[in-house]
Write a structure and sequence with these properties.
This protein has 87 residues and is mainly beta. It is built from 1 helix and 4 strands, in the order βββαβ.
Amino acid sequence: MFPQRTGLIVWVSDLKQIKHFDKLGGTIHYISKKMHYVVMYVNADKAEETTKALLKFPFVKKVERSYRNEIRTEYNSNAPDKTKMFM
């Protein structure tokens, strides 16, 4: 139902030009004014096209893909439960 989204971290030299990112169809999630980077989310199937389009801008230094979708978030504990000892 919902399209798969992926995050892109875009390192820029000038924050004034970020308004051009709206044309690429992504959603800007966070802008760091101190470190000069932008976190934006785009559809996963168009991530490569968006990366190539971002690198064509002269104020873009580097584009990195976020690995948040690939990090395992389900944890299992092999340690015994110590709460049963105190009951």
